[in-house]
Amino acid sequence: MRGGRGETRVTQQQDAQSAVAAGRPKVVLGVSGGIAAYKACELARRLTESGHDVRAVPTDSALQFVGAATWSALTGHPVATEVWESVHEVPHVRIGQSADLVVIAPATADLLAKAAHGLADDLLTNTLLTARCPVVFAPAMHTEMWEHPATQENVATLRRRGALVIEPAVGRLTGKDTGKGRLPDPDAIFDVCRRALLRGAAGAGADLSGRHVVVSAGGTREPLDPVRFLGNRSSGKQGYALARTAAARGARVTLVSANSALPDPAGVDVVRVGSALELREAVTKAAADADAVVMAAAVADFRPAAYATGKIKKKDDQEPEPLALVRNPDILAEISANRSGSGQVVAGFAAETDDVLAHGRAKLAAKGCDLLVVNEVGESKTFGSEENEAVVLAADGSETPVPYGPKEALAETVWDLIAERLPELQGLEGLRGLPGD
Ligand code: CTP
């Protein structure tokens, strides 16, 4: 049985869920004091235009960059920054309690530090302490500040508690310097917010928070000479969807991307590779402390036996030499074999053109992984498309069909099946999920 306070919180949670269901979720846009505050105007616009009820809560220093009039005009609400304004409405508690999502953009190093330590000296930090909904931080600061161990520890603390901290983008900073620390694109932040809201509304919260997951994506290229390679048609879209959805569920994500042209997903560490051997090195390294590994990349089974350091020239009146190939290592089988006793969950994909399920079952056994997503590929099927249809086979004999739909939906099912199989996190009881979980 819940006590009175618990009941109030459950009611607020139900209210929040119905607001999301009714299509007008309440979003608190917290803005801390950095030059990137001007970009948060675009985020406010994206959120309001797509039907969210947005309350801007800028800090005093944020108002040095963008004034209250701008926030008020963009959100259609008066802007409060002080806990002492409208005290009868108890804003320092009410704004956070009634939110479906809090997003802080930009989040300065100072704001991250306060949030990690539970300080509450203004309206925004009070709001963070009272919010029981998903919280997204989009940090922006100079590279040195982002890389400082104090900031990194604060970010790790927030992520462990279930907050979504988006990785800053790399590029031009305030002055002439360039590096990691730019506020990610407002569209990317918007995308993360939308997903966090959907998961929050489903009551699922950030169920992968505190986890490190590794996803491989794209297709390997096996070089013949400096200008030619053997490759395949994989676009990387399914792997990128897996990376994005895992990040939205709170995981720390390493995406090992083989030759994909897709932009880096927000909040994800991307390692770019070319060949199967490079992919193997990157995945093996990242898998060392991973809770789950998903091999969505199309890895070439063979590579040219020799690499010509100069461009291979045709010779007049001569047929070309036959191409000698050697086998590449089977990365999925290696990762599966090397994780004994670690509790790591390993999943692979099987691209088949015929007799799809029979080949899938044989492959699951041969690779020794926990899950195998079996899908049919062909000239116009799956490669490069936005949609996918699959059956997820599990080593315990279960089969989960996923109907034709967005690659994101298949990705969510894969993470559901992985989350069920992950061992309990140690020492984080009570820190994860929403109240009432
Ligand atoms: N895979 C891998 N290393 C390889 C080949 C494939 O890790 N050298 C992984 C893929 O990332 C995928 C799974 O194994 O998760 C199955 O890939 P697929 O190409 O369908 O199977 P293959 O093992 O290559 O078997 P075949 O081509 O004979 O069907």
What do you see in this structure?
The two termini are 13 Å apart. This protein is of the alpha/beta class. The strands form 5 sheets. The chain has an 8-stranded mixed β-sheet with strand order 12-11-8-13-16-17-18-19, sandwiched between helices. The chain is elongated and about 85 Å long. The chain folds into 2 domains: 177 residues, Flavin prenyltransferase-like (Rossmann fold); 187 residues, CoaB-like (Rossmann fold). Cytidine-5'-triphosphate binds next to helix 13 and strand 16.
Which labels suit this protein?
about 425 residues, alpha/beta, Rossmann fold, 2 domains, five-stranded parallel β-sheet, 15 helices, about 35% helix, about 25% strand, binds cytidine-5'-triphosphate
Per DSSP, the total helix count is 15
Ranges with pLDDT <50 over ≥5 residues? Answer: 1-18, 427-437
Strand content: 15-25%
Distance between the termini: 13 Å
- Unique ligands: cytidine-5'-triphosphate
The level of helicity is 25-40%
CATH hierarchy class name of the largest domain: Alpha Beta
Compute the CA-based radius of gyration.
Answer: 24 Å
Number of strands: 19
CATH superfamily of the largest domain: CoaB-like
How is the main sheet built?
Answer: 8 strands, mixed
Based on the structure given, which CATH architecture of the largest domain is correct? 3-Layer(aba) Sandwich
